[in-house]
Amino acid sequence: MSVTRDEKAKLFRSLHFHHGEMPLVLLNAWDAASAAMFAHFGAPAIGLTSTGLAHVAGYAQGEQLPAEALLKAVAHICDVTDLPVSVDIEDGLGATAEQTAERACALLELGVVGLNIEDGVDPVTEKLRPPQAAAERIAAIRARAERARLPVFINARTDTYLAVAVAVNHRFEETVSRVALYQASGADGAFVPGLSHLEEIAHLVRRIDLPLNIDAGLPNVPTVGALALAGVRRVSVGSGLLQAACSHVEDIARELLDRGTYHSLRESLRPAALDGFALR
Questions:
Q1: Domain total of the chain
Q2: Any residues with CB less than 8 A from the CB of 4 and at least 6 apart, and which?
Q3: Sign of the CA dihedral with 36 first, then 40, 41, and 43 last
Q4: Residue 179 domain boundaries
Q5: Residues 6 or more apart from 220 whose CB is under 8 A from it?
Q6: Looking at CB atoms within 10 Å, which of 121, 122, 168, 190 has the fewest?
Q7: What pLDDT does 64 receive?
Q8: Hey, what long-range contacts does 147-150 have (CB within 8 A, 24 or more apart)?
Q9: Residue 213 falls inside a structural domain
Q10: Residue 149 placed within a domain
Q11: Phi, psi of 81, rounded to the nearest 5 degrees
Q12: CATH number for the domain including 134?
């Protein structure tokens, strides 16, 4: 029996609140095949990497993937798994909060039950964008989703630990302030990529009221077990799995093209691994 959207949404939300247990570990897929494979491995839910979705379609990251192409890719992914699916919509996929809400709800209509939205860093100035814009988009998504009766877990990302223009001694309090604003606007979770010091992570968990998501795809991040003890409720890897896969393919291809040998390929071959790509 197919799992309903409401059931997926309820499950996805509950996975963030199993206090005393391990955090939700999200493997971030980039297409239907990788999503089906991660489901085959036993993942409890599927996260989608915006960078990966763009790259496999031939586009650069940074909202270069056309909205129509994104919807098509996500529809295919939702069709191959009954697991809850969460999509990264970067800073909103639109020029206005209304457009963001419209495109977000188009994803929810496909069966998506989670959304990541970020404040982000201005690529020209390298400064963190003002929080009000992200707050308005979060509020617009929440309002429109509630009117349409579309359940959604909104994970608000702040790039306070990635923006080089944020002073090191100010970024913690800036993070707390932004998370509070995003929560008041309708966010359900907080995502702080770049945060890796365990004591600081535990301190942030105590200062905020939302389940904390840590990006394990970045350097020096503690183990899932250590993050669990610090109170982290969600661990994701962004485009890390796709980057690792591409790096391995590069090694195989260079050996074959440059030396005409197949050692890397033969050492990696596991024909049964293709079972994880079995689509409907």
A1: 1
A2: none
A3: positive
A4: 5-238
A5: 196
A6: 168
A7: 86
A8: 148/105, 148/108, 148/109, 150/5, 150/105, 150/108, 150/109
A9: yes
A10: yes
A11: -145, 145
A12: 3.20.20.60
Written in H, E and C, the secondary structure of 94-130 is CCCHHHHHHHHHHHHHCCCCEEEEECCECCCCCCECC
Strand, helix or coil at 132?
A: helix
Is the pLDDT score of 46 beyond 70?
A: yes
- The number of angstroms, rounded, from the C-alpha of 260 to the middle of its chain's C-alpha atoms is 38
Place of tokens 């691994």: 273
pLDDT at 219: 87
Cβ atoms within 10 Å of 245's Cβ, excluding its own: 13
Give the span between the Cα atoms of 28 and 272, in whole angstroms: 22
Pair 35, 81: CB distance under 8 Å: yes
**57: number of Cβ within 10 Å:** 16
Place of tokens 């899932």: 224
Write the DSSP string, 136-178.
HHHHHHHHHHHHTT---EEEEE--TTT-TTS-TTTHHHHHHHH
Q: What single string gives the DSSP state of each residue in 7-71?
A: HHHHHHHHTT--TTSPPEEEEEESSHHHHHHHHHHT-SSEEE-HHHHHHHTT--TTT-S-HHHHH
Q: How far apart are CA 49 and CA 30, in angstroms?
A: 6
Residue 85: phi, psi to the nearest 5?
Answer: -120, 130
Indicate whether 264 belongs to any domain: no
Residue 263: inside a domain: no
Tens digits of per-residue pLDDT, 145-183? 999 999 999 999 999 999 887 888 899 999 999 999 999
Residue 256 has a pLDDT of: 96
Beta bridge partners of 46: 27, 85
| DSSP character at residue 3 | P
